[in-house]
Backbone:
């Protein structure tokens, strides 16, 4: 197999999607490997999970930078470059990125969003789907562009909305779908980067 694509995962919290990505990247035939987990939150639970898996995990706290988002992102970019990262996967990273960082990683940064985009970009996706009377919800993996949750869609998974659903119950079912969809699409994306067919 060609050299594996070097992937960084950016998180802000517990890192359940990150954990799914790490597990999938550990497969012998995976076209990528997770070389760095980075968080803007030093207390993010996912950092300890990553370290327990033998992966370098660092926090670059956004708070000392105040409103200077780009100064914070320059530190993130430097850490990504120092680790030789080729692809970035956002997994519950709760900061809106500036056009500067998005431009640095254009075509090489993925995100997962808990709705069937273009429906419900931003927050409170499950409550909005229930309030709208939708029969299905789901999740979307897309490339990151300057617009929030607007980049080209790489794939989606659909989950039925039940008649007695709460946002919390729906969120849990969508999360199960996320943990299946994101690892598969990240692997496919990295294989394409390597010029390898996975079909």
Residues:
């Amino acid at each position: 197999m060609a050299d594996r694509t070097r992937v960084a995962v950016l998180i802000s919290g517990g890192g359940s999607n990150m954990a799914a990505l790490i597990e999938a990247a550990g497969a012998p035939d995976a076209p990528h490997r997770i070389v760095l987990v980075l968080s803007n939150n030093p207390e993010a639970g996912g950092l300890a999970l990553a370290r327990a898996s033998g992966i370098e995990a660092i926090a670059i706290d956004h708070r000392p930078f105040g409103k200077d988002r780009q100064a914070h992102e320059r530190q993130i970019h430097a850490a990504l470059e120092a680790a030789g990262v080729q692809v970035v996967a956002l997994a519950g990273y709760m900061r809106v990125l500036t056009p500067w960082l998005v431009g640095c990683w254009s075509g090489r940064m993925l995100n997962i969003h808990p709705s069937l985009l273009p429906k419900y970009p931003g927050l409170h996706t499950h409550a909005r789907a229930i309030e709208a009377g939708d029969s299905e919800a789901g999740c979307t993996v897309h490339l990151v562009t300057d617009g929030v949750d607007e980049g080209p869609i790489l794939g989606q998974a659909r989950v039925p909305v039940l008649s007695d659903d709460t946002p919390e119950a729906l969120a849990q079912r969508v999360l199960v779908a996320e943990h299946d969809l994101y690892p598969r699409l990240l692997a496919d994306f990295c294989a394409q980067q390597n010029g390898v067919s996975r079909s």
In short: The mean pLDDT is 96. The CA atoms of residues 4 and 150 lie 28 Å apart. The domain at 5-194 is CATH 3.40.50.170 (Rossmann fold).
